[in-house]
Amino acid sequence: MKKVVIPALASLTLLASCDFLKKEPLGSITPENFFKTSDDAEASLTATYDALQNTGAYGQDLNVMGEMPSDNCTSANGDVNAMDKIIWTPTTSQVYNVYRQGYVGVNRANIVLKYVPTVTMDTARRSQILGEARFIRALNYFNLARVYGGVPLRLTPTESGAAADVNLARATTDQVYDQVVADLQRAIIQLKDSNPNRASKNSARALLARVQLTRRNWAAAQAAAASVTGVALAQPFKSLYPAENKSSESLFEIQYAGNADGGNILPDLLLPSPLATYAFPKFNIPTTELLAYADTVNDKRWAFNGIVNSAAGRVIGRDHASYIDGKPGRNGNANDVGPFVYKWTSIGNNFNSTDNTYVLRYAEVLLTLAEAINEQTGPSASVLTPLNAVRQRAGLAALTLASPQALSKQALRNEIDRQRRLELAFEGERWFDLLRYARHTAADGSATHAVNALDIIQQMKGSRDVNYLLFPFPQQEINTNPLLQQNPGY
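RE: above sequence
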């Protein structure tokens, strides 16, 4: 597992602008004195990966945004109340954290892309470093676009505090997605075939498939998904968790070393104590509706898988692969009773778990392939083959073209939606799926989904307010950037 060492790259040129007691700063890092060797290039890339670990990214808030507004999760914890109840505002913490951290990642990738080409080093490794930086920039911009819509598109580092350098107007959503596609297409050329520790050709192809699916570019999504090769589903499903680079199904993971500089806090936020360090109202509690929707008897992703005990032998709960049904002993805390997410299973370790977090895995690619083909041609063997691979790994029977789930494009759409929800539950994608379902139906009234984001918005707010298909820009950004226009309704 990669151990993260982070150089102070975020402040490379800000140090040069300080006039502290009229003295030259000692030991300051600038682009001119840092980017000299291959080790410097590697360190700058490590810092770019590190930006994905932060609580404003995959360390917490991207997952919260992707699950808490949806029908998958609820919580009594006030820290996520705005996400749960769909009452977020421009001052909501997650709204700010995701935006800020997304641009930290973008800026670090831009630093790599600007300065690593000047370093004298092995040309093949330099090309790969640039490909990895392009992948990370694309991932950050994709997340920013599907959260906020069109955002400022910054392709060079922010290297001063001057207004002309930091204040940009919004690009359109399509312009941001076009840049994401361009970055991924170039990254695919530069990267290695497969490596879950790092960006690879396969991870770039898988992300490209997700992007094209979001844009409803069905043929392009099909092509990108079909180009992911040399990988296979992990067997059994339970072996995927915790994520620790254990199988070829993993196409890209966020790496955690399990210490104060590189620990994953999600297990402590999700799990009951004593798996977690403390008992308190946890995030992302599975909803009663989701557990009724899942087949908790036959589906191996949701069926009983054994008793979970603490190190002291106390029964903690019943393992159902995707969730744990917490049943503490007589002295257990009430916050430890009930269902909890169980896709991060390692002990919390004082909010420094070693569990990695999946960003991309092959099961999603197969479901993307099935959806993209079905949207173009309707039921066919080419739709059922990838769909059945996911179903059969879950212990479900293979479908045929005579199955009720495959008698029409709409029937198959419903089944694919169902398998995406059950397969990817709690991994940060459900709300974004519901958003694209709403936009799909808006673009094509004949394409309906059993539930989309507007249905949830109606339930929580009493109206189908389309403004909540996007999050607002943080008020701090609106206050400091006069060129940034707020999303409608906020």
